[in-house]
Amino acid sequence: MGICGLVFGFLFGLVMSLPLPILEEHEGSLPFPFAPSARLTNLSISQGPGKLVPHFNHLVFNYSAILAPHVTKFTITLYLPQQQVDKHYAASIDSMPLKSGVESPLLKLGKRGETITYQIFVTAINHRPSMYLLLARR
């Protein structure tokens, strides 16, 4: 918020700010705990000749599934951190729940040369959610 004006040919400005709330720390911890991202540990595709580009890397969130022209459907298998596979982590592709290490239901491909985008979400307790994009093309 501010006030400004012109007095006797001089421009002046007065800046007023509202006080910021003070956040209390409890027992030496930060007011907002650090929340690492919920990430996959591996991702693979199957059904006919095809490849994931680039090869899986836990720091990469955008992938392409390049499949042979005759392939019309494919599956993915994703892997969650082993120590968190139970109820702490959840994953889905386009809102379909997935289990770690289990092939997904069949995913459709578009016409030859067409690209379909799939969104893979990974969530976990005390972690920020992560979104991976998988562009599928034959």
Tell me about this structure.
Residues 1-17 form the signal peptide. Keywords: Signal. The chain is mainly β and 138 residues long. The chain has a domain at 42-137: Sandwich (Immunoglobulin-like), CATH 2.60.40. It is 0% helix and 45% strand. The protein has no helices and eleven strands. The strands form three sheets. The protein has a six-stranded mixed sheet, with no helix packed on it. A three-stranded antiparallel sheet has the order 3-6-9, with no helix packed on it. A two-stranded antiparallel sheet has the order 1-2. The relative contact order is 0.21.
Give a short summary of the structure.
The protein has no helices and 11 strands.
**What order do the strands of the largest sheet run in, or round the barrel if closed?**
4-5-11-10-7-8
**Average pLDDT, to the nearest integer?**
78
Q: Give the low-confidence spans.
A: 10-27
The CATH class assignment of the domain at 42-137 is Mainly Beta
Give me the secondary-structure category.
Answer: mainly beta
Q: Give the percentage of residues in beta strands.
A: 35-45%
Shape: elongated
Order of helices and strands: EEEEEEEEEEE
Please report the total strand number as a whole number: 11
Rounded to an integer in angstroms, the radius of gyration calculated over CA atoms is: 24 Å
Tell me which CATH architecture of the domain at 42-137 applies here.
Sandwich
